[in-house]
């Protein structure tokens, strides 16, 4: 695919479409795999909770020992400050995005319409 003939806005729209398609296919694959795993677990007479809880219960004594060792060393756990909302969804102001991490679907939809991200600034 030769992208050299595309303008910058065209490339951004294409990027938005590609990101949306990747997210859609990833979700579809994740759901299909979950169904397969649920079927395999059910064939063995178990549930996903049985499968997930077993390793967690076995790891608890080690986790307690690790926590006790950290407490003895006097290491303080750093708390991460919450991200500041930089962008708000005009259709639903309760939805915000810090500008870090994966773009929410409403941001991708906004950009897919060719609108600039700056218009969403909080």
From TrEMBL:
It comes from Thauera linaloolentis (strain DSM 12138 / JCM 21573 / CCUG 41526 / CIP 105981 / IAM 15112 / NBRC 102519 / 47Lol). Residues 70-80 have a biased composition (Basic residues). Residues 58-69 have a biased composition (Low complexity). This is Putative trans-acting regulatory protein HvrA. InterPro entries: H-NS_C_dom (IPR027444), H-NS_C_dom_sf (IPR037150). Residues 77-122 form the DNA-binding protein H-NS-like C-terminal domain. GO terms for molecular function: DNA binding. It comes from the Bacteria. SUPFAM superfamilies: H-NS histone-like proteins (SSF81273). Residues 58-104 are annotated as: Disordered.
